[in-house]
Amino acid sequence: MSNIKPTIPSGTRDFSPDQAKKRNFIFDTLKKIFELHNFLPIETPAMENLNTLLGKYGDEGDKLIYRILNSGDFLKDLPDELWQTKDAKKWTEYLCDKGMRYDLTVPLARYVVMHRNEINFPFKRYQIQPVWRADRPQKGRYREFYQCDVDIIGTDSLLAEIELISLVDEVFENLQLSITTKINNRKILQGIAFWLHLKDNEFINFTTILDKLDKIGLDGVLDLFKNENWDIEKISKLKELIDFCSNNDNWTEKINYLDSIFKNNEIGIAGLNEVKFIFNNLNSIQLQNKQILDITLARGLNYYTGTIFEVVCDEVPIGSICGGGRYDNLTALFGLDNVSGVGISFGAERIYDVMEKINKFPENIINENKVLIINFGENYLSYCLPILSSMRQANIKVDLYPDDAKIKKQFNYANALNYKYVIIVGEDEIANDEVSIKNMISGEQVKISKNNIISYFKI
Asked: CA–CA separation, 307 vs 259, rounded Å?
């Protein structure tokens, strides 16, 4: 017999029945609101071809993609000169041609291209499935986690962004979480890069560093730019811009400030106009949570081209619990041009952690009106089984204990699994065509006619 203690990989989790019920509450809430907005469900494979995934997330993202080792004699094609090297990247080019999906957006783009003749545009889809990232596990960051995505494909209209922001507000209002939705635009970031006289090939690195602001602070970000050999003038200009916008909650004043520095800056002005449209129209909607313009929000994924979003919980500092944006060129990577899309992804794991920490799950998720029928043996089954069947047909959650065990054991089982009621059927109950029902919370016990069981639990 093996003495190996069973474990799971770091960054993954088991979920007990109570925890799974709470997660399902989140998923069910999301599905309800997604479908209220007429989003349609799809599913894609857990694995994708590596050439589908690589090059879509930037160098940082590519490093976090789990590769799947080819089956069979996977070393036969490895060139002799690679045997003596330790270059893992070159080895994987020969040993792996598939990977675990990193997110749901790139698989969506691949799906749209493959099924474009079956899809009616604009295509509104939702998808709730796990993704995998070879990240360093830490609080709120996992290697396996669920994403819950909604996307609108095939329209340039900024009304799509407004719908997603409205949907986010509805979701977290239903989950009773107070949130802030941060909004920015990649064109504004390009405008800032133009204002700073950055070269085109410096833009991705600029956004990657800027995206670390929440993690390492302004001084840490500026130090990284110093390491990139930025001159004092550039660093001073960026610091002044960030200071102004960080200390000002008024989105119109931020836009006016940016407008004043975006002279002869077409891309920056285009981003400002898009943000103006969104915020002006959000003002006409009765939203319950806060939306802010955050010009430091970068969302360090290469495929975003316009509006970008990020949602943080006001009650628990855990990082973003939702994020996304517009990607005008993603399907072009798979051969389909001129198809714009915008989407947002809900981080179910972090949402779960937040709700667990501040007790936001409804109590009845665990303490349901479940019923257990006590088993007194084979002679009583012909009386109990029809009761079990009729209750289930009436959508009442009920079980019959499977074994003829001591009644104390059966009652302990009912308590441990949070059954609210037990039904007791003995000789007296059968003789009088009735049952005894005990409320496991109050301790109250009543006898009722067998014909009135359904109505008793339906009250």
From this structure: 17
Alpha-carbon span 391 to 398, nearest angstrom: 7
* Burial class, 239, CB count within 10 angstroms (exposed 0-12 / middle 13-18 / buried 19+): middle
SS3 of residue 409 by DSSP: helix
Reference 443, options 410, 421, 416; nearest CA is 421
pLDDT in tens, 374-424: 999 999 999 999 999 999 999 999 999 999 999 999 999 999 988 999 999
In CATH terms, are 17-357 and 367-458 the same topology? no
Looking at the structure, give the CATH architecture of the domain made up of residues 17-357.
Answer: 2-Layer Sandwich (3.30)
Secondary-structure percent of the chain, ordered helix, strand, coil, rounded to 5: 45, 20, 35
Q: What are the structure tokens assigned to 17, written together?
A: 């029945």
Three-state SS sequence of 165-200: HHHHHHHHHHCCCCEEEEEEEHHHHHHHHHHCCCCH
The DSSP bridge pattern shows strands 421-424 and 290-293 to be: unpaired
The answer to whether 296 and 208 are in contact (CB under 8 A) is no
Tell whether the model's pLDDT for residue 275 goes beyond 80. Answer: yes
**Residue with tokens 């990247």, as numbered in its chain:** 89
> Would you list the domain boundaries of the chain?
17-357, 367-458
The domain covering 367-458 belongs, at the CATH homologous superfamily level, to: Anticodon-binding domain (3.40.50.800)
Quote the CA–CA distance of 162 and 27 in Å, as a whole number.
Answer: 22
- Using DSSP, state whether 89 is helix, strand or coil: helix
Which residues are within 8 A (CB) of 103 and not within 5 positions of it... i.e. 6 or more apart?
57, 131, 147, 345
Name the residue with tokens 């950055």.
Answer: 198
High-pLDDT (> 90) share of the chain, %: 55
Quote the CA–CA distance of 436 and 376 in Å, as a whole number. Answer: 13
What is the model's pTM? 0.83
Can you read off the two tokens belonging to residue 66? 């789990």
Average pLDDT of the residues in 179-190: 93
| Confidence class for position 1, pLDDT limits 50, 70, 90 | low
Question: How many whole angstroms separate alpha carbon 341 and alpha carbon 155?
Answer: 7
Q: Is the pLDDT of residue 6 over 60?
A: yes
Please count the residues of the chain. Answer: 459
